Amino acid sequence: MKRKLTLLLLGLAPCLLSAQSPVGVYGPMNVSSGGNLLSQGTVTVNANSSQGTGVIYNKGTITLQKGVSFYSNDASSAVLLNDYDNGGTVQLTASAGEVSLHKLFLPGGWYYISLPFNVKLSDLKDAQGNTVPYDSFRVRYYDAQNRASNGSTSGASANWKSYTAADYATVSLNANQGYIVMVNPSFTQGLEVTFPATVDAKLNALYSGNKSIAMNNPKGASLLEDQGWNYLGNPHTANFNMSNTTTGYPATVYYWSTAISNYDFADLEAESLTVRSFTPVFMQAAGEGQSFLFKNTGLTLSAANPGLRSTTSSFSFFKLGLNGTGSYSDACNISLGDSYTGDFRIMEDGVKMFSPVEEAAQLWSVSNDGKALCVNKLSEKGTSIIPLGVSLGIEDDYTISLKSNPGDFEQVMLIDKETSSSTDLLTDSYTFHSGVFSSTDRFYISISRVPTGIDRVSSDGKVLIYAQDGMLKVDNIAAGDNISVYDVSGRMVFSGYSTAESYSASVSVKGVLLVKVSGTSNASAKIIVR
User: Fold this and answer.
1) How far apart are CA 506 and CA 201, in angstroms?
2) Is residue 17 a contact partner of residue 46, using CB atoms and an 8 Å limit?
3) How many angstroms separate the CA atoms of 316 and 45, rounded?
4) How far apart are CA 100 and CA 278, in angstroms?
5) Separation between Cα atoms, residue 78 and residue 101, nearest integer Å
6) For residues 288 and 216, what is the distance between their CA atoms, to the nearest angstrom?
7) Strands of 252-257's sheet, edge to edge?
8) φ, ψ for residue 205 (rounded to 5)?
9) Phi, psi for 137 (deg, rounded to 5)
10) Nearest to 102 by CA among 115, 89, 90, 91
């Protein structure tokens, strides 16, 4: 029976482990300052099992004569955190065996994986040590240049390219890059694959100092939101807090979440995200010659879920959530700040990565220039009306709610044009029933910091009356409707007629105004024009 192994070396003489007794780490192994661990057998650091997850935390010296094997599964990944700043070193002797990752792949879906070392496809082995043939195993890479040239706002198959049978003889999987993997369905019990590091990559894989990854910036004939994509891997054998990175600009990080069958994300300006070892993430480069620096201060034993990050930036932020009754869900972020433009900018916003799963629930907001965004950063000017995009893959009951709230908004109003209803998400969530559905013209968010008691939407809940960027705007009306504006004394200060379903005008009088719509549509609302 395997037992949970916990070793704590506190400046003692070297601990000699017999070559005939490989070390299996199923729990925490701590090598403290001054401690020495000499392993003459292969050290196996296991993933989550009935015995626990293997974690080695080293502030001393570990000498490996037979190498180290890491295991990873859906629940967790093995961790070797070498505390480089506090004297932690890992040495490989000249006779050292392999440094490798072992992972069990079950049939029926794609796995997302990265490696902190180079691996030749021809070196892949199964659990019996046999070479993994091409027809047993598929590996795909993300073709960012294809996306830049031809366009795609999703992670769908068009941009994933498979290595061919001929590639398996010559191609290496590159360190710190992301890949997806699928096993042949004939392996009903799954296929355990060993990824052995090439000789030149072994020691660097265990190095725990700062690691910089150069970002590509593929360009093409497509739109800005399709340029500059990178699929990067965590370059360490430990979990990594992405707040301890630098790119020279705020970045949105995307990763696949099996739990929701969707791409999830974190805005590193507002949120924290811990990426497991051997796990890749998507990022978008904003220019040429940029690198993503993984500072060793971000190394952690924790694999906590994303959370809010304390920040000194002058912006307000909240996260909207869309949840079905099952596992399908999604979210999007909206931030308001004086320095933001409202149009899509790579250095500010995050493009929506659409799930390739047809049944998935998907939520995004629409920028001023019509881009689908999961992170939308808008200028702080009066009331904002923000269109939401919603795509639902199955019939279900769905709820839109605030998943986080900065506490400095007076009102975050969700408007449903189809049901002519409005809900303040600061106090309530909104639930609706829907079949398969996709639209960017049903749901809107109205945000304002104005004092309570001032209406942001019209009294009938269908016609939208609001101020944005100093302008009066009215939506969902009919051509020929009259729009009249009155100040607080009851004096008419403006009157006009619409020629379409939307109307906008500059109003010379600022402050609290009463707007009335009459004709085919009839509504009224108080707004503030700044």
Assistant:
1) 64
2) no
3) 43
4) 11
5) 9
6) 7
7) 229-233, 280-284, 252-257, 262-267
8) -65, -30
9) -155, 130
10) 115
Q: What is the pLDDT of residues 77-130, one digit of tens each?
A: 888 888 877 778 888 776 667 888 999 999 988 999 999 999 999 999 998 999
> What type of residue sits at position 94?
A
Q: Which amino acid is at 85?
A: D
- Distance between CA 177 and CA 140 in Å, rounded? 11
**What is the token pair recorded at 361?**
């629930």
Q: Taking Cα atoms as reference points, which of 322, 319, 321 lies closest to residue 398?
A: 322
Kind and range of the H or E run holding 447: strand 437-448
- Assess contact for 529 and 467: CB atoms under 8 A: yes
Q: Given strand 471-475, what is the order of strands in its sheet?
A: 464-468, 471-475, 502-506
Q: What's 241's DSSP letter?
A: E
Question: Using alpha carbons only, what angle is made at residue 172 by residues 169 and 178, rounded to the nearest 5 degrees?
Answer: 135
pLDDT band per the 50, 70, 90 thresholds, residue 13:
very low
Partners of residue 120 on adjacent β-strands: 172
213 in Cβ contact with 251 (< 8 Å): no
* CB contact burial 92-112 (16+ within 10 A = b; e otherwise): beeebbbbbbbbbbeeeebbb
CA atoms of 378 and 367, how far apart (whole Å)? 8
* Residue 97 and residue 42 in contact, taking contact as beta carbons nearer than 8 Å: yes
Can you read off the two tokens belonging to residue 176? 């710190």
Using pLDDT thresholds of 50, 70 and 90, give the confidence band for residue 54. confident
> In DSSP terms, which residues pair with 384 in a beta bridge?
447
Q: Name every residue whose Cβ is closer than 8 Å to that of residue 409 and which is 6 or more positions away in sequence.
A: 316, 318, 426, 447, 448, 449
Terminal CA-to-CA distance of the chain, rounded, Å?
73
Higher-confidence position of 339 and 358: 358
Neighbour-count burial for 459-477, b at 16+ CB within 10 Å, e otherwise: eebbbbbbbbeeebbbbbb
